[in-house]
């Protein structure tokens, strides 16, 4: 026995069959990194790699779909109803022209779909929502809209003319709206007073003169709210938080 050999092992390597001089094949691996490896371990390497890529891609798509369905979803601004806060670039619907060749420079925004599961909507928030059926009749379009929340459940909403422009009053008091440009206020229409039902919300566009909103088709039930707009992510010069 060599001087450096541990006593009692006869000079064999650990795991070596005594007296054989040959290291036996490794024992079968009892577990692999993930279930896919365990299921495909007997397949050729090329097939295993292909399956691994397929599973990775499908998993990534599933995560994206889950995030879009329950957490965050992107939306494009299709009309001028939220100018100047949110831009669009299609002149056919009254938007300011912001085309860069074939590139549509309408704002793209992100909406938090989870927030209203843990707290109530707040006045002044920009919200993505599904319109009530009356919107299709009054606006010629329905579906998914983006507007600002102006009236909460139980509020009395009114639009009064002052200095030739329409101003919102909530419960008899003027609503401070620094996001509204004077030139975009409606100068010909008044509204209300109307009391909002429990569980309903009054939505208006920031471009009051060109917005088809709750003034025409009524309030939006809580169940129709999709999420709060919290960021603009496109175009690059418009990236901002809301």
Notes on the structure:
- This protein is α+β, with helices and mostly antiparallel strands and 242 residues long.
- Among the domains are: 36 residues; 123 residues, Umud Fragment, subunit A.
- It contains 4 helices and 12 strands; from the N terminus they run ααβββαββββββαβββ.
What is this structure's SSE topology?
Elements: H1 35-40, H2 45-70, E1 72-76, E2 108-112, E3 126-130, H3 134-139, E4 144-151, E5 156-162, E6 165-170, E7 173-174, E8 191-195, E9 200-204, H4 214-217, E10 220-221, E11 225-234, E12 240-241
Antiparallel strand pairs: 1-2, 2-11, 3-4, 3-11, 4-9, 5-6, 5-8, 6-7, 9-10, 11-12
Distance between the termini: 78 Å
CATH topology of the domain at 110-232: Umud Fragment, subunit A
- Summed up, the helix count is 4
Structural class: alpha+beta
Major sheet attributes: 8 strands, antiparallel
Strand content: 25-35%
Instruction: Let me know the average pLDDT.
Output: 83
Give the ordered list of helices and strands: HHEEEHEEEEEEHEEE
Shape: elongated
Radius of gyration, in Å, reads 31 Å
Instruction: Give the class-level CATH name of the domain at 110-232.
Output: Mainly Beta
| Fourth CATH level, the homologous superfamily of the domain at 110-232 | Umud Fragment, subunit A
Instruction: Please count the beta strands (DSSP E, at least 2 residues each).
Output: 12
Oligomer: single chain
Residue ranges: pLDDT <50 for 5 or more in a row? Answer: 1-15
CATH architecture of the domain at 110-232: Ribbon
Percent in helix: 10-25%
């Amino acid at each position: 026995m060599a001087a450096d050999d541990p006593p009692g092992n006869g000079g064999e390597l650990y795991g070596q069959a005594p007296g054989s001089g040959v290291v036996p094949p490794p024992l079968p691996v009892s577990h692999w990194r993930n279930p896919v490896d365990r299921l495909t371990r007997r397949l050729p390497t090329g097939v295993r790699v292909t399956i691994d890529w397929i599973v990775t891609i499908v998993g990534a798509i599933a995560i994206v779909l889950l995030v879009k369905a329950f957490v965050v979803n992107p939306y494009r601004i299709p009309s001028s109803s939220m100018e100047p806060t949110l831009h669009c670039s299609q002149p056919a619907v009254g938007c300011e022209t912001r085309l860069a060749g074939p590139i549509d420079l309408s704002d793209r925004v992100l909406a938090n779909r989870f927030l209203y599961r843990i707290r109530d909507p707040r006045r002044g928030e920009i919200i993505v929502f599904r319109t009530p059926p009356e919107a299709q009749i009054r606006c010629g379009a329905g579906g998914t809209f983006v507007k600002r929340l102006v009236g909460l459940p139980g509020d009395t909403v009114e639009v009064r003319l002052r200095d030739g422009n329409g101003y919102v009053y909530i419960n008899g008091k003027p609503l401070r709206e620094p996001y509204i440009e004077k030139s975009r206020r409606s100068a010909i229409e008044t509204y209300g007073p109307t009391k909002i039902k429990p569980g309903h919300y009054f939505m208006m566009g920031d471009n009051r003169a060109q917005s088809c909103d709750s003034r025409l088709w009524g309030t939006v039930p809580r169940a129709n709210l999709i999420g709060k707009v919290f960021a603009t992510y496109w175009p690059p010069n418009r990236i901002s938080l809301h």
